[in-house]
Amino acid sequence: MRGSRSSSVVGRTTVRNRVQIVAPDLRVADSPAASVLRVASVEGPISRDIAARATGLSIATVNRQVASLLGVGLLRERADLTASGAIGRPRVPFEVNHEPYSTVGIHIGAIVTGIIVSDLRGRILGAVEIPTPSGPASTALHTITRSAGAFAARWHRRTPLWVGVALGGRVDASTGTVDHPRLGWDNAQVGSIVGGGLGLPVSVSGHVEAMAASELLLTPSRAETVTTGTSLFFYARETAGIALTIDGRVHTPSTGPGSIAHLPTGSDARCECGNRGCLEATVSDRAVLTAAVERGVLAGGEGRQNISALYQAAHDGSAGAQDILVERAQVLGRTVGLLRDLFNPDRVVLGGQAFTEYTAGVPHVAEAFGRTSTLPRKDIRITGFGNKVQEYAAAVVSLSAVYSDPLASMRRAAA
User: Fold this and answer.
1) Residue 230: what pLDDT?
2) List of residues 6+ apart from 87 with CB closer than 8 A
């Protein structure tokens, strides 16, 4: 794991063709400015004395940070909420100045790309999905960037500060380049094209790592977020992946995230690698759709349905559709159980539509997990973001630099 990093986001910035590419800082930052901004986001409007108790900072430090954050526009005071009889400016509550600003998030999936606009508190203002363009990376990325620009322009009264991109494959966060075999991308200039096209500083992250970060930074219960110990985030939809969180920081290997795509499951599904039974070839949306067509549950041909048709058939009582989804749930439960025993985390979080779109499969996940894992049962749950987990992953990448080093990020956004 990387050692502790004390440098600011400015020190982790790469300029490529005049585009500011900033490696996302997927952690709960503890600098004074970050702590004050965080408590304002979670609990604001809040007074300075209460903020001092919540952050553990002295009242003098809180006053200095509030003044600095007011100066760059990230906070605003709420004199209208000052308690009756209170004397002095320190009694004036403050909160995140969320209305003038926005960030743009893009989640590039194997099939669908999501574009979101969020405010500085991490609230999603709007979201849209487009088919992920095929063809060369450069052409696809320019298409996505144009769509993102057009969508973000709907909030013309807000100033966009940053763009964040979350996607699969192997991501070099420092340069914003990505190798994505599923999309056929090799050394794709994601940061340069997206950041340059939108004229914004940009951060690029692996999407499962971003999902794990959203559990730390964007959940509604952030005031009670556990920042000690370890968490394992397991994702499954069209792809499958994991991320580890250690003491409030998402572990980001210097050579990119590992892969669980080819873990053996014992199934007969043939994988693109030539083997049978690989995890992704068994549990992905594409895999279960193939099984549904082969078993006659769904029609094939040119008008082949998407995964929503299989979910709908299961909800409508199709025993064949239910069997396929239960089989997937059982494979997922066994895999999570094995990984839980391997890493022995304090917490396990499950995310992705493979878990959230067919809730009747969750008990089968739990049963298979219980049969497989040999360790005592601990904290295992499904993400509270539900089917919007990809949206919040994109949002947290767009906000991570602001949350980690607010003052430096505002200087970069202004530039």
Assistant:
1) 94
2) none
